[in-house]
UniProtKB/TrEMBL annotation:
Gene3D superfamilies: Aspartate Aminotransferase, domain 1 (3.90.1150.10), Type I PLP-dependent aspartate aminotransferase-like (Major domain) (3.40.640.10)
Protein name: Pyridoxal-dependent decarboxylase
Annotated signal peptide: none
High-level lineage: Bacteria, Bacillati, Actinomycetota, Actinomycetes, Kitasatosporales
InterPro entries named among the record's database cross-references: Aromatic_deC (IPR010977), PyrdxlP-dep_de-COase (IPR002129), PyrdxlP-dep_Trfase (IPR015424), PyrdxlP-dep_Trfase_major (IPR015421), PyrdxlP-dep_Trfase_small (IPR015422)
Length: 465
């Protein structure tokens, strides 16, 4: 054994304690750390010929890279829709690496059973019936892509062919209808061979990102003769957290044949709040569903779940024939359900946080984030120089400058805020804007007030461009 490796093995208990203390120190600093540091990025070093051991690697990482890393785990990182890692999820993630399970085969099946238990808990959390079967994937992009892959196979089933066997070209042209599809949808369509141009934007309601049902029905009626149709509905759009009327869309299947995929990446968590659960009414009626867990469930990155009512079609797409794998059977191994064969036991972090805090704990996180968004929304509405672009429906505040809202001025505003808060740019109805998304378990209304104060200070310092 290499002497450095042997030394680290023999000294591992003390080394891991050093890493633990270092991590505890970082977590203690996170709330007051610069959200986006001003420290320069380090120049890349060449690969060392001789390793220096774990302790030297920790020291080098702390000296060279940590000063430039953002406080994305902290309470005022409001860009994208980024959760943190609850204490239980962090512990679960550490144990995930410690056990280093590849939950893909029933020949070594404990990891798969744990994942199925966790899927059952998530199904209950979101109010889904047992007809929905789920698997863990890496994020919303992969969740949407898997759902669309199953939809593609369903389209083939309607014509007596299998795109998984004969290729997407056997389907001919396909239409995917959506009011305000997330960017991961055309990306997935590109990967699946259906093409980005198969996505047809259906007009939305005036001043909304929710699809106009009359326009959707008109689009469905136009294509009724060929039946090559998938509808992607939104349960929480990224700009304004708008919701399509899921139950009404599902009811259209009484007159038109289509696959209903619902992108509920973070909007599904509305089901946890009695005040907002009506927003996801009808979610269980979907044929496939995307939910991103490293958003509002607050587990570490690289965790999402996809649900579908047609696991048989899912295995038709993703089955992996090899002598060392088990047969499909009634309960297929995970290797037959997603693009990956090898993957870490992603379910463990989710299992830990659900076991530790239950539905009630995660409901509290959801409702507190909504309260924070409302508080910031009120501050924006009352701030001279700022303008809300949409009502605060759930956990996102979308706003712009009251005068001359150019991309450059908004970038300057975001830059002024960077040490105190991180917000991401967007465009809504042609207007450049900023988004603040609240989904971190650490965030409190005190943080929302702090962001509001920082916004006021940044506005006063904003140059006229």
């Amino acid at each position: 054994m290499h002497p450095r490796l042997a030394a680290d093995r023999d000294g591992l208990p003390l080394l891991l304690e050093t890493v633990r203390q270092h991590a505890v120190g970082l977590l203690k600093e996170i709330p007051e750390r610069e959200v986006v540091p001003s420290a320069p990025l380090p120049d890349p070093d060449p690969l060392p010929a001789q390793g220096a051991g774990l302790q030297a690697a920790v020291d080098d990482f702390a000296a060279r890279w940590e000063p430039a890393l953002s406080a994305s785990a902290g309470p005022r990182y409001l860009g994208f829709v980024t959760g943190g890692a609850t204490p239980a999820a962090l512990a679960g993630d550490w144990l995930t690496a410690t056990w280093d399970q590849n939950a893909m085969s029933s020949l070594d099946g404990a990891g798969q059973h744990l994942e199925r238990e966790t899927i059952g808990w998530l199904r209950t959390l979101f109010g889904l019936s047992e007809e929905h079967h789920g698997t863990f994937v890496s994020g919303a992009t992969m969740s949407n892509t898997v759902g669309l892959a199953v939809a593609r196979e369903w389209l083939g089933e309607q014509r007596g062919i299998s795109p998984a066997e004969h290729g997407a070209g056997a389907l001919g042209s396909v239409r995917v209808l959506s009011g305000a599809a997330h960017s991961s949808v055309p990306k997935g369509l590109s990967m699946l061979g259906l093409g980005r141009k198969s996505l047809v934007r259906v007009p939305t309601l005036p001043g909304r990102e929710a699809v106009d049902l009359a326009e959707l029905e008109h689009a469905l009626a136009e294509g009724e003769s060929d039946g090559r149709c998938v509808v992607v509905a939104n349960a929480g759009t990224v700009n304004t957290v708008d919701f399509d009327d899921l139950r009404a869309i599902a009811a259209l299947r009484e007159r038109y044949s289509f696959w209903l995929h619902v992108d509920a990446a973070f909007g599904a968590f509305a089901a946890l709040s009695p005040e907002h659960a009506h927003l996801v009414d009808g979610l269980d009626l979907a044929d496939s569903i995307c939910v991103d867990l490293h958003k509002w469930l607050n587990v570490p990155y690289d965790s999402a779940v996809q649900f579908t009512r047609r696991p048989d079609l899912q295995t038709r797409v993703f089955q992996n024939a090899a002598a060392y794998l088990g047969p499909l059977g009634d309960t297929p191994d995970m290797a037959h359900l997603t693009p990956e064969n090898s993957r870490r036991l992603r379910a463990l972090a989710a299992w830990f946080t659900l076991r530790a805090y239950g539905r009630d704990g995660h409901r509290e996180i959801t409702e507190r984030c909504v309260d924070c968004a409302r508080a910031l929304g009120d501050a924006v509405e009352n701030a001279p120089g700022l303008r809300l672009l949409a009502p605060v429906r759930l956990n996102v505040v979308c706003f712009t400058l009251a005068e001359n809202p150019t991309t450059e001025r908004l970038a300057a505003l975001a830059g002024q805020l960077a040490a105190e808060a991180f917000l991401t740019p967007t465009v809504l109805d042609g207007v450049p804007a900023l988004r603040a998304a609240f989904s971190n378990w650490r965030t409190t209304e005190a943080d929302a007030r702090r962001v509001a104060a920082a916004l006021h200070t940044a506005l006063r310092a904003l140059p006229t461009l």
